[in-house]
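[job 4471] stage=fold_predict status=RUNNING
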Amino acid sequence: MGFSTEPTAYEKTILSDLQGAWQCLRDDVAAHPGFEGWERALFHIDEAMSWEAVRNLQQMQRSLVLVRNILQQGDEVPLAVTESLDAVNGFMDETLDALAQGEID
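[job 4471] inference complete, writing structure tokens
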């Protein structure tokens, strides 16, 4: 019985950048608890990073809209969280554009 071997080369795509941006946003929200809506935002960030959302970018985009709305309604949202949210927005736009152009599946 043979064992499957791990691929040695990976092609970096915008999806890996998007995933990294979501992780940074999650880390920043978790590192700065206490502002209004932070726990709800964390829940929806986790939803956006779930396997189902990764396989369905429209679902991920809906989660992003929820997170953005929650954070915009909060008072005293830390700058690091706002900057991370902006990064996720940017990578989400790039990812959807790459999908539309057929650059990713």
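[job 4471] summary: The mean pLDDT is 91.
[job 4471] exit 0
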